[in-house]
Amino acid sequence: MNLDASATGVLVLVALSIGLVGVLAAVVALVQLARIRRTYALLEAAEGRDTFVDVVARTIEEFASLEDAVQTLDVEVGQVRRELAQALRHVSVVRYDAFGDLGGRFSFSAALLDDAGDGLILTSIHGRTETRTYMKGIHGGVTDIALSPEEQQAVQLAKGGA
Fold first, then answer.
1. Under 8 Å between Cβ of 112 and 120
2. Among 138, 101, 135, which Cα is nearest to 118's?
3. Is 0.70 topped by the overall pTM?
4. Same structural domain, 152 and 95
5. Beta bridge partners of 139
């Protein structure tokens, strides 16, 4: 087959174009290969460094131990709340003059209650020549002994009333 000069030139140009595209494809492949190698080097274990998989595994283990710690704290907080409900933490004191001829409000009634209304009422009545102190138990906000108006007021204040 006999080709003229222009056809030969076109074939050479096409071959050069194909060769150039091949070289460009090889360069792109080399750049991508270099990027993949750098990424792999980061994941590969270096001396004294953890791999990505090691870091993820350790993080999962730490999360599991934190979850256990949170569950333990939840149990302990529940226990503290139950104990706190039984503490005598609702306290009020009402001072008054038990006798009209004495001033200074030396007599008092104090109510000490827990969250359920259990506790005690202390009353001290101060007179001119003596002082008497009484204690009454209270269960669920109710006593089996009648309360004076001052003692009732102390219980209401301890419960949060006005």
1. yes
2. 138
3. no
4. yes
5. 142
DSSP line for 59-78: HHHHHHHHHHHHHHHHHHHH
Q: How far apart are CA 50 and CA 56, in angstroms?
A: 10
**47 occurs within a structural domain:** no
Q: What pLDDT tens digit does each residue of the chain (162 aa) get?
A: 555 667 677 777 888 888 888 888 899 999 999 888 887 777 665 555 667 777 788 888 888 888 888 899 999 999 999 888 888 889 999 999 888 776 778 899 999 999 888 999 999 999 888 899 999 999 988 898 999 999 999 999 998 876
Contact by Cβ (8 Å): 97, 108: no
DSSP secondary structure code for residue 52 in this structure: H
Distance CA 115, CA 86 (A): 6
Helices 52-85 and 5-43: crossing angle, nearest 10°?
A: 40
| Distance (Å) of CA 90 to CA 22, 55, 120, 155 | 88, 52, 11, 9
Judge if 36 and 70 occupy the same domain.
no
Cα–Cα distances in angstroms (integers) from residue 108 to residues 26, 69, 99, in the given order:
99, 48, 12
